[in-house]
Amino acid sequence: MNRTAVQRGCRQPASLSISRSALACLMLFIWPSATAFAQNDGRAENVTAPLGIRATHILGFASAKNNANGRLSTQDDALQFQANGRPAVQVKIASIQDVFLGEQSKQVGGVPMTLGKTAAPFGGGRVVSLFAHKKYDTLALEYVDSNGGVHGAVFQLNKGQGEVLRNELLARGAHVSRSADEPTKQSTGEVTSESK
Amino acid sequence: MKVSKRVPLVVAAVIVAITAAHPAQLPAQTAATKSFYASNNSPAAQWSVQVNKVDPGEVSLEPSFQIAIYEGLLEELSKTKRFKQVLRDGDRNAADVSDLLILRTTVQKYTAGSETQRAVTTVSGATKLTVRSQLCTRDNQIILDRTVNGNVRFLGGNLRATHNLARNIAKTIKDSALQEPSPSRP
Asked: Which end of chain B is more exposed for a tag (fewer CB within 10 A), N or C?
């Protein structure tokens, strides 16, 4: 018993030392290449990489179709929207006069879901409506054309994306007035405001 | 006998021919009437309009709503074909336009509704907008002053209220008789 135990004890360090040296060699090969990859990734992030965000164009952006889903991105000095399967339209970032952030809650599912909820018996659709809503960010832009005419555009983005895009636009030279600095939040209840 | 049998056939053929000819004439008459009224609208068609940005007044209206009303107005006013040109706020071309009206829109009342509340209760959660629309000349003479509402009560998102409002404003302007632009006006 002891003999075998001793033999096993002698063998283990040898195999361990071999595997350790192999591991060390492997690490020697891998480490420089891994650091090189990491450096490359860092460089790629530092360079002004184009930002792309999925968005729904509600209205007003150049000649884009209303309520079109697509990708909103920054390309060099322009803000570009490319609807699915359509050519991209763009606006110079320098021509953007104001960027406003907002928040709104919308029912999901569109017309088919609405019809389904209406057809559901015993008011089941209303119960579904209680849970079938989602919060979105809205990004409103004001920009001027070559004649000085003011244009407005509204986009709907996933929650949290609006802030990212606004910061990107600011970094690239878009103007923001002081009043547009704070995001506005749409209240969910009925709130009336009236000017006398 | 043979002649008397043919007479009803001939009469029937004439009736069919007349009936077939009339529907072709009717649309033509309608088109002629339309074009007559369109040409009668020529005094109003001589005006151009410049749409100013929406003034929120003392109401805390979301910027996206203001922008949506402004863009909606430009679109709906163009659709009416009441004006020679529909210009944007700040457009330098407006300086060269002789008969220019300026559309000012001031928000008077805003009720922020909720789409979820509308879907659940049906009777509450309506988004309501009330604005004062003024059409002025360059020398601040008010030609039209109306209070217009736009709201969404049942189906649709909150921004739909802005679309309805813009449509109502355009309809109000289209239906109202504007005074003729004076020839001496610059």
From this structure: N
